[in-house]
């Protein structure tokens, strides 16, 4: 057993064949149902992108069909602001069935930072993610319906999707649902 810590330990673990575990440890999203250990995930703001990119690339070499690795690589590029690279990794993960990747593609289109801004595409990706059963996707799709992002507002559908996300434990969906009930469409709830 090695006593290395920090980046040196990460490199040693990669050499020992632990790239998949290292990618998981460095880049798993707290809301991704594909994350292998929801007790050990990384908030986006805390993601150490350069280390995660190296680990996730090696992990993908070892297991190219494991969708969560492509999602985590995309997340790492996203953290760096390399949004074209993030999109490509997310697209591969989405092609493999990752609902989490669909959410993040929608966010890329919604935000449009160093990427194409397109609310219609964002809404469509959020819908795909919602239909795949991802609570974060349900919430994001509800925000688009609520606030008229990429189409007309639809209060009834927004309530339905907020409620579905809330039933699956998404606290911000419960809050948005209450605001929608009180104030009507246009709550300003955001998916980002």
TrEMBL record:
InterPro entries: Sel1-like (IPR006597), Sel1_AlgK (IPR050767), TPR-like_helical_dom_sf (IPR011990). Gene3D superfamilies: Tetratricopeptide repeat domain. It comes from the Bacteria. PANTHER family: ERAD-ASSOCIATED E3 UBIQUITIN-PROTEIN LIGASE COMPONENT HRD3 (PTHR11102:SF160), SEL-1-LIKE PROTEIN (PTHR11102). This is Tetratricopeptide repeat protein.
